[in-house]
Amino acid sequence: MQPHDDSDEEASYALDKGGNINVKEADVIRDHVVQTRFQPIKHLGSAKRTSVTIRSLDIAKELSLEHNMPNVCGALDRKMFLVQNNVYLKSRIGPKAGRTVVWEFLV
């Protein structure tokens, strides 16, 4: 499955409720996922890639962002997120933005 396209520079950032770019919140979301989901797997040092499943609602609850699901989903849907963290998107299920989105990454 292909991640969302990053051809538009603004598209790589989450939007706040008013439709304005919220770079800081998007970075917080991505950093949280890397630290809590990807780094523990990478520290195991396996030569094989490991599957990591992430639910949007879980991340939103952990960061108290249940009110802002578009930012949570937008932050994790970016190609730059995959490239910067050397992970692959195996699948993405659910709406564009919502509480039921599930990603499966290969770390």
Structure explained in plain terms:
This protein has 107 residues and is of the alpha+beta class. It has 4 helices and 3 strands. It has one domain (9-106). The chain has a 3-stranded antiparallel beta sheet with strand order 1-3-2. A hairpin with an 8-residue loop joins strand 2 (88-93) and strand 3 (102-106).
For this entry, give a set of tags.
single chain; 107 residues; alpha+beta; 4 helices; 3 strands; 39% helix; disordered N terminus
Sum this structure up briefly:
With 107 residues, the chain is α+β, with helices and mostly antiparallel strands.
Q: Which secondary structure elements does this structure contain, and how are they paired or packed?
A:
Elements lengths: L22 H20 L8 E5 H7 L6 H8 L2 H7 L2 E6 L8 E5 L1
Antiparallel strand pairs: 1-3, 2-3
Helix pairs in contact: 1-3
